[in-house]
Amino acid sequence: MNTISEIVSRSTFSAEDLVALLSTKGAERELLHAKARQVKEEHTGKKIFYRGLIEISNICSKNCFYCGIRSSNPNVVRYDMPDEEILEACRFAHANRFGSVVLQSGEIQTKKFTERIANLVKRIKHFSNNELGITLSCGEQSLETYRRWFENGAHRYLLRIEATSRELYYKIHPDTPKHSYEKRVEALEFLKDTGYQTGTGVMIGLPFQTVEDLAGDLQFFKNFDIDMCGMGPYVEHENTPLWKFRDLLLAAEERFNLSLNMISALRLLMPDINIAAATALQTLNPLGREKALTVGANVIMPNLTPLKYRKEYLLYENKPSLDEDSELTLRNLEARLIAAGCEIGHAEWGDSKRFFKRIEK
Ligand code: SF4
């Protein structure tokens, strides 16, 4: 049996090594986190980067079993932000020296939606003189749609697979053509082929999930050669089918610690990718995102969605910052980041270093 100090000094990791890293506790966990921080600083630098998150619509055609805005939940007030409000949030990001914004929505596959996003991307690029980088997170789309958005200026795309084990995937999604595992993976391939910096991620601490599943997720990321990752703890939502399995969940603190171990293990496995400190970490621990930035993450996504919409974009319960406006959110966040010893890459895109090495191959 290898010790954690032996494992963290390697550059390749077996499934057994990853399980050992994910299972660390106490002083060994501290060692893992310290090593991940060192690797992050060596490979991606000391800075962390902002992505201003704008949740542009909670309308979704899908029915994922864990998600509060699934189409079958009648308790959600659906919204679709007008273009001018989206642009206003982008202008706030630009004025506050964010390098990038993320436009996120439920999954809508209509010609109208495709054209609308294409137009918005073009307008954001235009008003910011190409200074704002754009990440999209608008679900599975056709290759043509991905190309159209890319050609208009979006250059990163986040499409979380949520569980890379096919078996677990169908425990948290309906087994229907609309929720096909194969189509999800194919969409990730489309994104890479189109030329996006491509990101995916999973939920950590799902019911039925084992630590071996999580080690498998890490190996999937490595084999797929992702450029970015956004992953965080599973947080249950009452109006979803998975709610009835909440007694199977790890305690919130264990889910939080497991999430930090996932971030650190991924940093060791893929030293030069971008890893986001997911908002769900803050639900389980008020300083969760700042902690993640000290154990391997290098991206944070302050929520710039106008307050009047935020309460309706609840993928999970107890989502933080629902009643703080963007200015206050930002001021509080900056103070916490500085206190946590972070250096902020203002007005920088903070692209994935892995991406440039991947496309050189
Ligand atoms: S997880 Fe995404 S695709 Fe699934 S129901 Fe929620 S918003 Fe829609």
Report what the structure shows.
This protein has helices at 4-8, 15-22, 26-44, 83-95, 111-127, 143-151, 166-172, 181-194, 211-224, 252-269, 280-284, 288-293, 307-310, 326-339, 353-360, and strands at 47-57, 100-105, 133-137, 156-158, 197-200, 203-204, 228-233, 274-277, 299-300, 343-344. The protein is of the alpha/beta class and 361 residues long. Helix 9 (211-224) links the parallel strand 6 (203-204) and strand 7. Helix 3 (26-44) packs across helix 10 (252-269), helix 5 packs parallel to helix 6 (143-151) and helix 6 (143-151) runs parallel beside helix 8. The structure holds iron/sulfur cluster (SF4). The site of iron/sulfur cluster has 11 residues, from loops.
Structure characteristics:
single chain, 361 residues, alpha/beta, 8-stranded parallel barrel, 10 strands, 45% helix, globular, binds iron/sulfur cluster
Condensed summary:
With 361 residues, the chain is α/β, with parallel strands linked by helices. The chain has 15 helices and 10 strands.
